[in-house]
Amino acid sequence: MxxxxxxxxTEPEIQNxxxxxxxxxxxxxxxxxxxxxxxxxVGEKRDVDKRNLELLQGVREVISITKPYKLVSREFKKDxxxxxxxxVKIGGxxxxxxxxxxxxxxxxxxxxxxxxxxxNSVSALRGGAFKPRTSPYAFQGLGEHGLILMREAAxxxxxxxxxxxxxxxxxxxxxxxxxxxxIGARNMHNFWLLRELxxxxxxxxxKRGMSATIEEWLMAAEYIMAGGNYQIVLCERGIxxxxxxxxxxxxxxxIPVIQKLSHLPVIVDPSHGTGRRDKVRPxxxxxxxxxxxxxxxxxxPDPETALSDGAQSLYPEQFNxxxxxxxxxxxxxxxxxx
Amino acid sequence: MxxxxxxxxTEPEIQNxxxxxxxxxxxxxxxxxxxxxxxxxVGEKRDVDKRNLELLQGVREVISITKPYKLVSREFKKDxxxxxxxxVKIGGxxxxxxxxxxxxxxxxxxxxxxxxxxxNSVSALRGGAFKPRTSPYAFQGLGEHGLILMREAAxxxxxxxxxxxxxxxxxxxxxxxxxxxxIGARNMHNFWLLRELxxxxxxxxxKRGMSATIEEWLMAAEYIMAGGNYQIVLCERGIxxxxxxxxxxxxxxxIPVIQKLSHLPVIVDPSHGTGRRDKVRPxxxxxxxxxxxxxxxxxxPDPETALSDGAQSLYPEQFNxxxxxxxxxxxxxxxxxx
Amino acid sequence: MxxxxxxxxTEPEIQNxxxxxxxxxxxxxxxxxxxxxxxxxVGEKRDVDKRNLELLQGVREVISITKPYKLVSREFKKDxxxxxxxxVKIGGxxxxxxxxxxxxxxxxxxxxxxxxxxxNSVSALRGGAFKPRTSPYAFQGLGEHGLILMREAAxxxxxxxxxxxxxxxxxxxxxxxxxxxxIGARNMHNFWLLRELxxxxxxxxxKRGMSATIEEWLMAAEYIMAGGNYQIVLCERGIxxxxxxxxxxxxxxxIPVIQKLSHLPVIVDPSHGTGRRDKVRPxxxxxxxxxxxxxxxxxxPDPETALSDGAQSLYPEQFNxxxxxxxxxxxxxxxxxx
Amino acid sequence: MxxxxxxxxTEPEIQNxxxxxxxxxxxxxxxxxxxxxxxxxVGEKRDVDKRNLELLQGVREVISITKPYKLVSREFKKDxxxxxxxxVKIGGxxxxxxxxxxxxxxxxxxxxxxxxxxxNSVSALRGGAFKPRTSPYAFQGLGEHGLILMREAAxxxxxxxxxxxxxxxxxxxxxxxxxxxxIGARNMHNFWLLRELxxxxxxxxxKRGMSATIEEWLMAAEYIMAGGNYQIVLCERGIxxxxxxxxxxxxxxxIPVIQKLSHLPVIVDPSHGTGRRDKVRPxxxxxxxxxxxxxxxxxxPDPETALSDGAQSLYPEQFNxxxxxxxxxxxxxxxxxx
Lengths: 338, 338, 338, 338
Description:
The structure is a homotetramer of 338-residue chains.
Chain A: E1 2-5, H1 11-23, E2 27-32, E3 37-42, H2 51-54, E4 59-63, E5 83-85, E6 88-90, E7 94-100, H3 107-119, E8 124-126, H4 144-157, E9 160-165, H5 171-177, E10 180-183, H6 191-197, E11 204-207, H7 214-226, E12 232-236, H8 254-261, E13 266-268, H9 270-274, H10 277-289, E14 294-298, H11 316-332, E15 336-337
Parallel strand pairs in A: 7-8, 7-14, 7-15, 8-9, 9-10, 10-11, 11-12, 12-13
Antiparallel strand pairs in A: 1-3, 1-4, 2-3, 5-6
Helix pairs in contact in A: 3-4, 6-7, 10-11
């Protein structure tokens, strides 16, 4: 930490701060400038509340130097993390497409969509079995039966299964049926759940909270990695802003930012990020052009009858056209859709 | 819903929308203006995704008329809800003070703070037993032992106990030791947890999510009430904005807004809402002046040694002075601290 | 407007609202549902303050149907507006690149950069002559001399000149030296300036205000068009959010949104939108992939010595590489850089 | 500035940064920790763009220590600034009420409102003569005639006149008729206008920009003070957030924050801050309870017929009741309405 004293801080005030810093376990470097004194607190403690210094008499500002995260950072691990699940590689120069309906509805729907994915060379099938709807009066998902249907369809067509865990109690089910466990935006801050997912050894797809900063998002990944589970894919899905024409504002710039700060792969969900089918194609292209390691896209055999989020699901033909465009854009960046 | 067609919408486009509305179970009222056609969809369905109409050809905009919540609304229940716990009444003209440390640390701390609260005529002791810290490297709370200590101190001094539940698995512990169960900001969107808390019969203190709109906050309360638990106290604790001098921006205007929309009591947490001790007093006064039904305040016998959030905890003397000021402000509004 | 009455609104309350609506010059359509009454106010007035109805007894909500803008909307003009300046076309399938330094510094700098632009087939030279710096202690621009230098360089290399107007008093200078007049983000809400720019006949490049909604941005364009100046290019440059790793959050999704709502061309400024050179390339690619009609990019012969915003200016070599990438991405969308 | 190097920064990288810092005119203090090197740049330059260092190889982060403002800060001037205009004092323990209609409409309206203000012991009459409406189709104000009417009414009833300047060209008019010149939220970032207002010697009422940070707001005040005009009253009027039930989110916590950072008086505008009459009273009380030095309130003899913002104007009786409440709350803080 760096502690900047006020211009008129007195010597006893400075001494008091020095003592407090020492009592917190740091070594102090003092630098007396012409206008003010600056104190450096040297040490590697990560759980310090800097406000305890800010409130001392004569202190103007306290600045943290140690980032709160470590394992996720590129300083800790220089090379890109590449997560291999079966034959699929996520990260590096690969562009992975994970697609499927918002919610699993019935056997026919899942089989149909899995077939469409296969025809488009997609690697992974996504679908919700437990649906955390904002309204208590809406469809809440098929539960375990939904997971069974996804597993069956994925096995038939050689796909991976990606599905969202809602609560600690569902982890065993997820371990049984799913290849990549998704943590939804609403649970990014659920440290209880993150801690438990750190104990298992399945890859995690961690969505950004709807108003999480990039640092908080990386800290959620750190929580999981601190438990020993290092296979994390980050997924940008839009943040809340004052703009209300779009459901969320998809933060495309988070992609190069994450790639500078962290070695973890980062993908984008343009479906939740925009909330409207006609915005999914341009934003999917933009994400790949910005360097994303992949996409999470909602597609439905018949969006008009979808039980949830049909409005943001692509029609199969639209999806097919999009895949072609994405291939061409990936080539510009010397990458390859898989 | 009201569906506004584009100025140049064709008759077949209008007919297509009419059919779609009917197929969703609504009756249609059509109004042809000079410039455009407006369709009214009459019916009381709450789980409709209006985007399914927005995407149809010729539709300019779709507006929901039915609010997504019902039980929490003042239209449903005109008079203020007053929640009685023991001899304490929350809501109406009462101003309740709930105070205590961020985290329960040990027996001595809890006993000391309970004594201080009693001396200040406070009704309820708050304290965290399970601490959902953003850093995996920080103090995580005493668990059940913390709840036992709070119960003992509260019983000795005639106080209520308020503590936060982090996960569905902790509900039985909460039912055993706690009088009012708190849902933290990070869990306001945890529908899994809300659903389970709808099944019990203890009062709930529901904090606003850090970027939740007022409507989403009321929907979270609706979730609990839909399960049959009607005793809910709403708690404003600051929202995330671009301003970063304060930890959050305490939305004082949410108080009169909630009081117009809902019959539920609404209190304010100026400690988390500002994150700094020196801002707690002015904001606590402001909340009461704006008409809040109470406050949730962090106070610690010795904030400098607190294991968490010491920087936003008041010293006992500051707390005492604040209570005096709040009494005087409450009188201006013809209310009474209890 | 649609006025939704409360469920328990009385007949006198409804009548009172009906009378008020009529007195505002509207015709009323009344629809009595099972639960509540809904009133439609038919007419085309644009300057109504709907809050005057919202505050009447028994009214739950008032919804505007008439959009506040007209001339900018795609309903008013179906086909894309293409603005031709000299031989350059902005809009439609053209992708225009406008580039140059943040501020004009001296003759040598401007000549050098104009040469670089020509080598990269760029159409327009941008540069600031009047610099509205946030600090009163920073470089404030060369004024008219800067405009003269830009004109000279542009004429030598066959480029257009784009520069920002800061105040009504500068309009005559702009008319004399500049081909496209830029309105900066801070002036998007300066209706005094917008009104005067509506009276001239030079194309306007209108940047989005740093916290303007898309609707407000379109209203600013409407202001200019209402004065008779129809040649407007919209420019997205990032909005303010809670995320502070990037200077602003570049709202790439505004591109498809604008293209649906309006016939005006929309370009993107990734330099101000991110504030850092290393984020400019990925975001420039993303903007073109999302369908932007062009880019506004800062490039400097020697960014390290730039008098302002050097950190977000590309090196000439980086700029050259970027142009190659953009050409390839534009081809995927069947567009062409010009 | 403090420059934090990456953990693995090499010695040549560190040397390169050291040279760059020196070339910017600073002295360098180097501190080699166990994990990383931290460089201190000592000097008092205010116009440095720290991004120029951030982009150098091996640099992790650069932190500014020197605040961008000086004259407005409490470090520069310890005691509260009290601005005296005629017999009215703004700042310190005085609570000033400035009230009146949104726009001056005609002679009768202004005279009536001035009489009402006098009956309520208000010090200053506010009213808009130039109205910067968001719609080009709405009422745009009476211009100079409006200022003449306000001056006449104010002189008759012994009040000050407060009115908003929209453009540099209006400054002479303002100097002629007005006692305190208001800068609206949309012009807070208009450095051209701020600079000109620094040259005159009338007190300025500076509203916070609708998405300005507190630091940017103080910088706008610094701009004016740097020109030699030291009489500035800051006015909080709500910031833009994702919450859309209220027009803006009134940031009450800005009051204690400003009072810590600056010696300038800070008042609050609950009328624009909420946009609805029924929210003005609670928020006005909250502002005074939080310690504001005054209020700017819209009141109209007949809000229903107001030409602008009638919905947020109080009725005369409501205003009278509010003044009584504010008096009582001011007493709790040992302050006095004037």
